[in-house]
Amino acid sequence: MDGPEGIAGQLGPAERSHRSSVSSVGARAADVLVYLADDTVVPLAVENLPSLSAHELHRAVREVLQLPDIALDAFALWLVSPLLEVQLKPKHQPYKVGRQWTELLLRFSDAPDDDVAMDEPSLQFRRNVFFPKRRELQIHDEEVLRLLYEEAKGNVLTARYPCDVEDCEVLGALVCRVQLGPYQPGQPAACTLREKLDSFLPAHLCKRGHGLFAALRGRGAKPGTGEQGLLNAYRQVKEAVSSGDSPREATLGSHYRAYLLKCHELPFYGCAFFHGEIDKPAQGFLHRGGRKSVTVAISLEGVHVIDSREKHVLLGLGFQELSWDHTSPEEEEPVLWLEFDGDSEGMPVNKLLRIYSKQAELMSGLIEYCIELNQASEPAAAPEGMSGARSAPGPSPPPAQRPKLRRQGSVVCSRIQHLSTIDYVEDGKGIKRVKPKRTASFFSRQLSTSQGNYTVVQPTDSLEQG
């Protein structure tokens, strides 16, 4: 992705505190504040800040934190504000990108002019979107694991990573272990959990009510969950004890790793996030629909569309399952189009989802770049004697190894029935459509892979002629 924008995503005002890192300075020495995932600050005294690259600042942070070489690939510098997120390339100059912040907001956010004028980004040290999960499994440095854990925990607690209640309890129990130490029978743990529930569980599951179990009576919660469920999971956290260590002295690294491994089961872990809207399905006699706010999560593994209000996945696609494009008409809203296989009343069709977003161009570019990275890594990963074979892109494990997280009604399962899509079939020259009618397809981009699942559906006589 060329240009200063890098990777951008839009946040709600409550999701990030308003902090400043790079303000107007001259060529002399300046203090730069870099924020970590746990909101701690790394102050850096630097010379000639306007000309410093993100790579040079990244190296300075690693030296202060004494991080190993793997941190160069695992983390990136981001400029973040309540309105926009940008992952910087190593060659970018954070000070200069910060000076262009207003232009970036006008181009990639729908924020009112007053908010744009007041907005100022902070410099953050966060996980690199292009760092594969398989490499994360090779990390043993406790401080690197802690930083990754803190970032993942923040995304779970803010429901950026939607989780089923069962998974929230397991993840919350690991946070309990890290913050409170090993579970000790007889301690007033239930009272402690109740007082700090929002430190262990997502806010939308911590609705206060009457009775012991009211805290988790959020959407999708089942009877019998709540503080007691969290407490039971806390009891079951296993200790990894080195020889000579007591349980209280057990390294926290094993618990950071356990938390990250559980997050790896979430299909959107490690994604870049973008804001958009989709059409609601028509309802009622007048067929009124309107729009729904969504978060679009894009990673090396695919694309997920998440309902911002309901905190569940609406659509999840691997790159081998979709075709895509974006449009930016001068007098209309920019749109990211996702095309995928589906059915209409039992008939196989191509489905087309329209995502309205000023960040459509960024999303399209990120999809393209992720596919390029995956394809570039395939030959090196191919077994000996199979140089001519191509697998579906992405570092995902084979289906047999994928964690069994797809419960009935799971928040990570696609809800295609909640989407308003354009359904059609293509015969090579034109399009025969199921409603509504279209006359042409503008798609020129489609992942070319011998093992991909995406196919163009052929027309049948039972479908309407477009």
Model description:
- The protein has 466 residues and is of the alpha+beta class.
- It has twelve helices and 15 strands.
- 26% of the residues lie in helices and 20% in strands.
- The strands form two sheets. Strands 7, 8, 9, 10, 11, 12, 13, 14 and 15 form a nine-stranded antiparallel β-sheet that branches.
- The radius of gyration is 24 Å and the shape is globular.
- The two termini are 37 Å apart.
- The relative contact order is 0.10.
What share of residues is helical? 25-40%
Largest sheet: 9 strands, antiparallel
Choose one word for the global shape: globular
> What structural category do the secondary elements indicate?
alpha+beta
CA-based gyration radius: 24 Å
> Could you give the distance between the termini?
37 Å
SSE string, helix = H, strand = E?
A: EEEHHEEHHHEHHHHHHEEEEEEEHEE
How much of the sequence is in beta strands?
15-25%
Q: Which regions contain 5 or more consecutive residues with pLDDT less than 50?
A: 10-18, 23-27, 209-225, 241-249, 380-406, 436-440, 461-466
Number of helices: 12
**Mean pLDDT across all amino acids:** 78
